[in-house]
Amino acid sequence: MENASKALEMAGGVLIALMVLGLLVLGYNRISDLKQIEQDADTVAKEYFISFEEYNKNGLYGSELFSLVNKIKDYNTKYPESEGYTQVSLDVTINKDHKIGNLGISKGTYGENELYERYTSLATAIYNAGQEEITAKRQGETKNTTGTIAGYWTNVSDKELREILSTSNYEKITKYRDLVNLQTEIVRLTFDVKQFEYDNMGRITNMTFVEN
Description:
Elements: H1 2-53, E1 60-61, H2 62-78, E2 89-94, E3 98-100, E4 103-105, E5 108-111, H3 112-141, H4 152-155, H5 158-164, H6 167-187, E6 190-198, E7 204-211
Parallel strand pairs: 2-7
Antiparallel strand pairs: 1-6, 2-5, 3-4, 6-7
Helix pairs in contact: 2-3, 3-6
């Protein structure tokens, strides 16, 4: 009886030891997985910083600048400061007004968020005006037996448009055209880099550009 009791105690001890060992192995694997995830995230974050360096040049086009804006916003969202990542900011000085009404960009200095909002507002306005412009063109085509209204972009003069279209439709077409021209003007602007700032780990924290 005594031997059976000792055998049970030994079996219980072995079982407990195996359970502890299993927990240790599980814990180690989880820690390893977390470390791997962190390393993968750090690798991707470093790739962002490498890609940011591509913009460290003079003569940067507006189209490139807005691509950088999107990249910064994407990075700051994926790698928040609350998780220990370095946040990146952008400062851009605009030297002249490039706007129609409240759309476009006025003279001043902007961060990445405001630049994003202003460009998005312009793009949305262009889309909405474009829908009205399509309707206006179709209505104009019914009044124009030659069909030249379909090529108004290059083939129809402003005077002809006024004759073909109602005042309302003429205004819709010219509004769309003016907004597209404004967008083209903005993406063709050029900027010089003023400075790139880094933290003590050599990671970019701020990029500053000035319009030529």
